[in-house]
Amino acid sequence: MTSKAVTENAEGTMTEAKGSSDPEVEVKTPASESKVSPKEEKVEEKPIYTQTQHDGLLQMATSEAGRLKIDAETERDTAKSDVTRLTSDLEGTTEDIKNLEAKLDDMASEDPKRFDVVKELKEAREIKSKLKVATGELATEVKAHEETVKIAGETMLEIAIWEVAAEYKGGDPVRLKALCVTLGVTDEAKLREVAGNLWEKGEAKTPAKKDEGEEKEKLSLDGGGTHGGGELTEQQMLDRRYPRTATK
Prior knowledge:
The protein has a domain at 52-198. Mean pLDDT is 75; it is low at 1-8, 32-38 and 212-229. The chain is built from 7 helices and 2 strands; from the N terminus they run E-E-H-H-H-H-H-H-H. It has helices at 31-34, 51-106, 114-166, 173-183, 188-198, 212-216, 234-241, and strands at residues 2-8, 14-20.
């Protein structure tokens, strides 16, 4: 549509100028955006492991943690026994040193046996020093084994929490774990008692059925010969074992 505008020129004369309105700019939507993409269909992801494999892995983890726990407990108890023995030796050596020091104080400086007491005292002090070092190392070893026992026990309890929670309707392993921590539950029997007070027991799991292919997979003794996959006759067994003498 043409529009008119009145302008003033340099001489002061009013003139009428023709003008045109600015053309409308057409906004183009990119092709990639102009199309409304359909709603994305939810693709059901297949589980990485089957239920049987999952249960097997849990069993393996529990067994491994249990084995580590037993081994660590055995080594810890052995180290504890050694610590007790060395501590007793250390106490005895300390007592010997006191007696030798007292004996040395009572001896005259010119006593010919004084040298033997001094030598014996020196050896006792060296033994005491070694016993203290060995006892300290064993005490550190005991603490390390106790930490392993603790971690293995916590791992076994963690696995049990998830397994037990799955047995109940609406079972929440996170909530169950929090309650176990609050109540100081450390064994599966108490764990099941807590879960039983929270939720209703679910239906027992039925063992997974084997695939049809796995059920039907059988070895054919005669390779589908004249007996249709049945048992071999005595003659056929002899023919297979001694092909050169086989009857034709």
